[in-house]
Design a protein that fits this description.
Keywords: Signal. The protein has 333 residues and is of the alpha/beta class. The protein is 47% helix and 16% strand.
Length: 333
């Protein structure tokens, strides 16, 4: 009887010791919520969706709350009003904010794309396109002062086309409605992001004739940015965020378009896998996806040159003033 009692005590003690250890082992990792506002939903931002779907953010202990805020002005307003912690938008917006004066500057800390992401789409099929065909046409452009419009005008001028004199230029249509306007019959040519451009081509609504990305050179086209105060107060979170992004960038560089398309399809339910594969491959081939998150000074200066050419640069701002490469360089080592 005593032996059974002793055995019972031993078992009881083991249970007391083991159960808490097991409970600790099953405890879920605590996560930090990061609110991200993206300027639009596009395959141009493929590495971002890969980082979410492949669990790279989760591995860093981050929970991403992603929302689409159509247009650079709305995205920046969301960030400035504390509706988001991080914004994915064109770097030009940070320059506009700084030029107006800010006690808490918006700092670019990780680059996602390094070329323009738009394509020139013609209403009619053109077998042997040349840029002179745009002269005297009605061109449906992007919002004035936005990166797509400025990069577009830079490329047009590069081909000796004055957007104001040689085209019937329409650019007073809201960013989110440009594609709809073209589909309803407005314009002979339009500047569109993917996957809309390829979808239009498959549906016979338009035909891709040129890429603005291959023509405009490297620039910090779409970048993750945050208030300077956030970068200081949540330094560890920003580093984890940037590390997850770098893992996704590496994964996109190492895998083919078909596999990438399958991973991120949940973000593009209305686009078939074949179209997604075509678009992703097109962006990969023209080097649109940045291989790492470092925004270097040469790209920053090219951005401001394009803004200046478009007459939209309020003041030239140094790379060190609005760009923080510490996080990107740390995770790229």
């Amino acid at each position: 009887m005593k032996k059974w009692c002793k055995a019972g005590v031993v078992i009881l003690l083991l249970c007391v010791l083991v159960i808490p250890l097991g409970a600790c082992g099953n405890k879920e990792q605590e996560t930090t919520k990061v609110r991200v506002a993206e300027v639009t939903r596009s395959l141009f931002y493929t590495p971002q969706y890969v980082a979410i779907e492949k669990g790279f953010f989760k591995d860093e202990g981050l929970s991403i709350d992603l929302k689409t805020t159509a247009g650079g002005d709305k995205t920046m307003t969301t960030l400035l009003s504390d509706g988001a912690d991080i914004a994915l938008v064109g770097s030009e917006t940070s320059i506009y904010v700084q030029a107006q004066g800010s006690n808490d500057p918006v700092i670019n800390f990780a680059q996602l794309t390094q070329t323009d992401g738009t394509f020139l789409v013609s209403r009619e099929k053109i077998d042997n396109f040349n840029w002179d065909m745009l002269k005297n046409s009605t061109f449906l452009g992007q919002r004035k002062g936005g990166m797509p419009q400025m990069a577009g005008e830079f490329v047009l001028k590069k081909h000796n086309i004055d957007p104001k004199k040689d085209l019937n230029l329409i650019q007073n249509i809201d960013f989110a409605n440009v594609a709809t306007a073209f589909a309803s019959g407005t314009g002979d040519f339009v500047q569109l992001f993917e996957p809309t451009a390829s979808v239009f081509e498959k549906e016979g609504k338009g035909y891709i004739v040129a890429s603005f990305g291959t023509e405009s050179g490297h620039l910090p086209y779409t970048v993750y940015m945050a208030k300077e105060s956030y970068l200081k107060e949540d330094k560890e979170t920003v580093e984890k965020f940037t590390r997850a992004l770098k893992k996704a960038q590496d994964w996109v560089q190492e895998n083919d378009a078909a596999e990438i398309a399958e991973v991120i399809q949940p973000y593009f339910e209305d686009t078939n896998l074949e179209t997604m594969e075509t678009v992703i491959n097109r962006y990969k081939e023209q080097g649109s996806f940045a291989a790492d998150p470092v925004l270097d000074e040469e790209e920053w200066n090219n951005l401001q040159n394009i803004m200046d050419e478009a007459g939209e640069l309020p003041t030239r701002i140094s790379h060190e003033e609005l760009v923080n490469t510490d996080f990107a360089e740390e995770v790229t080592k």
